[in-house]
Amino acid sequence: MSDTSKRELAQKVIDRTVKAPLEDTRELLHRDGELKPGLGKISSVLALSLGVLSLLGVLAFHFPQYLTTPDLRHKYSVDLLRQLLLAALLIAGGISLGNVILGRLRNINIVAFALVVAATAMGGSRVPVGNFPDHTPYIGLDWFILDLLGSTLIFVVIEKLFPLYKGQSLFRKEWQTDLKHFAVNHFIVGLALLVVNFLLHHLFGWLVSSGFQQTVRDIAFVPQLLLCILVADLAQYWTHRAYHEVPFLWRFHAVHHSVKTMDWLAGSRQHMLELIFTRVCVLAPLYILGFSEGVMNAYIIVVGFQAVFNHANVHL
After folding, report:
1. Domain boundary among 116, 135, 154
2. Which of 67, 115, 119, 181 is the most buried (most CB within 10 A)?
3. For residues 274 and 272, what is the distance between their CA atoms, to the nearest angstrom?
């Protein structure tokens, strides 16, 4: 066999084993519309999604000081996370390998299986986690993974049970744009919180009265939570209204209103400067009043659900 023939054969092998799977996967990620059962699309998307999240999870185990959120890392059960990661690897690997054997969307499942192999080769669920510095710059990769999984499991079910538009598919038009916003806004959570905390302390620190804050903290949990939600909602209302009535602010808020299809992911389309400005305006009165940590944590859960539910495709 001549050198030219060998090169041509090698190129064909590369095209078939590397380029074709990557091109098919890229094409899948640019599509929208309904996933019809029986064609292998649903299982392939599940395997690919779990493969990506598993690889990201392994990276988070390797570099927790840079890829995990400090407020969350102290509350994790590492054993539980390892079990979840192992389950995701087994499910993604089993589905993708089965689809490859059955010849269903083989190229896409080759990519999914390759992600599982890469994650396993990097240590999988057995990556050791030693001591590491706590005060380092970080990207909220863990928050992205957990919130994406949790929101998908909760809100996709709610939207399927109580849809406003019954024919709307999970992968509707422009879902890719909103997923990018979802990812970026989660990845910059460290930077956003740093900026918000800096602005709160320097702009509103002079308003803080420890005696008054202690009076607020002495209020019973439930009425204190209701007061916290009331104050936050008033701040959110006037901030939101300003976005619509002040032309300069509207230029940032218009990004949020460029969504054409409403669902649980639509609320993620938000300019990062709007994200920071809104948090400062809403958290400032809560910071000044000094609500207790337990009340603030409960409020974050309530507003986190509300913010997603407000945009969801539900008829409630």
Report:
1. 135
2. 119
3. 5
Which of 135, 162, 193 is the last residue in one of the domains?
Answer: 135
Q: Two tokens at 191? A: 């930077």
> 259: closest CA among 181, 206, 204?
181
Report the alpha-carbon distance of residue 173 to residue 261 in Å, rounded.
Answer: 7
Q: What is the pLDDT of residues 37-67, one digit of tens each?
A: 767 788 999 999 999 999 999 999 999 999 8
Q: Which residues of 97-133 are buried (b: 16+ CB within 10 A; e: fewer)?
A: bebbeeebbbbbbbbbbbbbeebbeeebbebeeeeee
**DSSP assignment letter at 174:** T
Distance CA 51, CA 32 (A): 20
Beta carbons of 25 and 52 less than 8 angstroms apart: no
Is the separation of the CB atoms in 291 and 217 below 8 Å?
A: yes
* Rounded distance between C-alpha atoms, residue 132 and residue 135, angstroms: 9
Pick from 120, 64, 134: nearest CA to 92: 120
* End-to-end Cα spacing for the chain: 69
